Amino acid sequence: MERVNTASLCLENLLMMQENERLRRQAQQLDQENKALLAQLKQQQQGAGGPSGSASAAAGGASAAATANHPHHKAKAAGKQPK
């Protein structure tokens, strides 16, 4: 009986570790997207007051790439709701 409990706990622990890793990767992706969107916002605010430079264009491109690669944006573009 103790071996069954131990095996069950090991499996449960493994599943939690896998879920934690998945959530960690998702958090990193969201953080990267957040930083790109913040850079785009700053670029737009600076663009309203003066000419835009090559650095701001690069920030806008990074934001577009981060947004396009985000699974929620893909689901919305396909007309599907994210899970």
TrEMBL record:
InterPro entries the record matches: ZPR
For this entry, the protein name equals Protein LITTLE ZIPPER 3
Which taxonomic lineage is given here? Answer: Eukaryota, Viridiplantae, Streptophyta, Embryophyta, Tracheophyta
Tell me the organism: Sorghum bicolor (Sorghum)
Source organism superkingdom? Eukaryota
Q: Give the compositionally biased regions (Low complexity).
A: 53-66
Q: Where is this region: Disordered?
A: 41-83
State where composition is biased (Basic residues).
70-83
